[in-house]
Sequence to fold (650 residues):
Amino acid sequence: MKKTLTIAFLLSCFFIAFAGKIDTLSHSIKVKAIRLNSALSIDGKLAETVYQFPAATNSFTQRQPQEGKPASEKTDVWVFYDNDAIYFCAKMYDSRPDSIMSLLGRRDNFQNSDYFAVAIDPYHDKQTGYFFVINPLGSILDGTMYNDSWNDDSWNGIWDYAASINDDGWSAEMKVPFSQLRFNASDSMRWGINFQRQIERRKEESYMIMVPKKESGFVSHFADLDGLEGIKNKPRIEVLPYVVQKAQSLVHDPNDPFYKGNRYKTTLGGDVKIGLGSNLSLDATINPDFGQVEVDPAVVNLSAFETYFEEKRPFFIEGNNLLNFGRGGLNNSWNFNFGSPNFVYTRRIGRSPQYYPDAGGYIDQPNETRIFGAAKITGKPASNFSFYGLTAVTQRMTARINDNGNLSEQEVEPLTSYSAMRGLKEFNSGNQGLGFIFTSVNRDLHDANLNASLTKNSFAGGVDGWTMLDEDKEYALNGSLSGSFVSGSTDAILKLQQMPYRYYQRPDASYARIDSSRSSLTGSMGRVMLNKQKGNFYLNTAFGYITPGFEFNDFGFQWKTNAINGHLVLGYRWFETDGIFRTKSFYTFAFKNFNFEGKKDGDGYGGFINLELENYYGFRFEGFYFPSTFSAGLTRGGPSTISPAGYSLY
Fold:
């Protein structure tokens, strides 16, 4: 979901970081917001008399191509506000306006263009915020920031904008309603702020607060935005009722009694968003219809594992960045066949029914599970504490069967409730953090077929956290510990034991063997990682484990168990040009995986070199060696096999 432009804007150093040393420049620059008596007309032309005020800032410093040099073109920026919105307005002077590069693009997906960007930290917590980007033709990109410099462009705020190209450059105006932002309302507020300008033909990237490539962090370096006074909380209620009429016409079997070539369906429902103060939002949906959501791409999957599809339904997207578990505090995470658990995969809610009737004749099978209703609370109820809560209930679904005129019904999906809760507390300006996550799935199983194939109750959760190990925030330590418990019929648990990421039925299994009498599974997972956050020398190392019985796939997305993993990565990076290469870096690594039987099922050594020339062309050289290992999954439930040693060069 991270687009090229988003990364170019948000990554204020070569490797993004969680918390960086705050430079003195960010403390010395103050931006003053000016209160307006009436709303601005957003046309991108900067014709109003308010632009006679001195610009809030016109000082920009290059990060590319000449780090530390003044920007090659002048940029004036103003910040205004009224009772309802905050305005970001800018004049981008250009000595060659006929060479301004700009392309129209879909929202959150334009590239190879000049642009102007604003990043704000309304909580002034130096960790989170929002960004808004516009190019000369009015294409936009927006999203949220978290973990100091990570970003998520799935958030689509409602804001007004315009841009125009003129004889001496181009200009832009943005109007962001306060109702779209989360902040601690008070009589006088201080936010964090930064601006960026991109001149694409020169590959020039300049900032008001430029963070050197050797440093880390982004939001933690922001300048202070002062002058926001008298902003009051206003009730925030949005109600969106809808009526959807669907018509379907497909090639069909003329003898099919359930489908005569045309099918019509009317759906009633609605969405509600309520602001709980300026910090929290309550979203609710009743009988939602997601028919207008972008269709998933067609995929041919020949593996034993299911395909992962991105969540595209707006109701489930907002606040999802808080669900990143076990990765806080680090600017980089190497995995080597060992990733952080994805406890909440919201595509499970409203999925296609999981049972297909084993019957003759014609079957009218539902394509999706109807969602009775869902509610979600997201935001920051207290200082430096973020919260996410979700609950949803899906309907019992049945398929109709016509077997030579004999009509019957078969339940194919039970009544199910889904719940998830996530909290994260940051301490000492982000130097430490501690979080938790908990999920549950509970099914009302009455049908014998469903009772034999689905678990009745599933619970999973864990705690995670991080700490900086030195005052300069150069080294960070991250850790997490998780557990799970699932229960159901012996047939349902037997099915879990035979999943592709478990394969208890292997004839040579010695640690965890298949047991047809089990009615539950329990397991755990843990990992600790050390990362060097900044500087030329690079270090990343981790150790983790997943027991064979760890199971969270009812609500999450799971692909691995039964692993003990460790790795070490060393590298060195040159950020200064030497007249030939703009940047250079090399990395070397080693990793090993064992299962709980003591068999080595992963082993590798390698390295790669990156070289970027002055003209931005680059080269990458890679070399890997993989010793012989065991594979417990190649025969898909059969005996373990030996994978021969191999190497690769690129």
